[in-house]
Amino acid sequence: MDTLAQTPLDEDRLYKFKNRYLIYSIRKRPESKKVVFVFSGVDATAAFCRMSYYGVREELDATVVHVMDHFGAHGSYFLSIAGDQQIRNAIIGLVRHVQGELSLTNAETYFVGTSKGGTSALLVSLMVGGGQVIAGEPQIRLGDFIYSPKWEQLEQWRALAYAILGRVSSDDKEVLNRLISEIIERYMPTYRGRVQILYGNRTGYWSGHISHLCEQAESLGMRQAFDLIEGDFADHGEVVAPFLALLKERVPYTPAED
What we know:
With 258 residues, this protein is α/β, with parallel strands linked by helices.
C-alpha cells in the first residue's frame, strides 16, 4: 500500500477478518494510555472515502486510529455490506486487535466522529461493550435519513442504501430504520461505556434522530449512559466546531518531555 510521508510512529495498515479487509491509519503515542478511533462522515465526492478529522492525530494526547469506511461509494456505517453483517465482526476485531497491541482497555478507548462517523462511533462502542463516545449529530433512523423526500436526486443516499442492503428501494425505509435500534436493543443492556451526543437546536436532529435514541435507552434503563449537549445552530455542518472543541478538551495534547 502506498503511504504518505510519515513519522516513524505513523502507519497505514490493512486488517483482515475472514473475507473482509479494513484499511486504517494509526499514529502511535506510546507515552499515552488512551486510544481514539475516528470514524468518517459521508464524503461529498463519490468513491473518495476520505478519513475525517485527520489532523487531530497532531492534537490529541492519545494513539489515534482513523478507520476508512470504503465499502460502497460513500461507505456503509460498518453495518452490513449488501445485507452481509460480517463487517460488524471485522470492526470489533480491529478494535480488539489495536487494544491488545497497545495493552489498553475499553475504559481507555474513545470512539468519535460526526454525522455518519458519529453513528459508527456509537455503534462500535456498543458492540465492544464500553468506551467513551463523542458523537456529533449521529443518524439513528437511517431509513428516514437515506429516503428523505428528495432522495432520488441525491447520489450519496442511493449509494448508502446500495452498500448496506445491496439494493435501492424506498420500500426498505423501515428496514433501515430498524438496523440501529436492533443493535441498541441487543447491546445496550450490558453496555459499560459513556456517550456524549452533540446536536444543534435547529437542525432537526433532535426530533429526527436523537430523541429516538434517548427514548430507546430510557426503555432499556440505560438513559444514564448518555450526556446530551445542545448547541445553538441550525446547520448540520456546524456541529464540527463544538465536536472538535469537546474532543480536544477530553483528550488534550500534552507535548512529550525531552
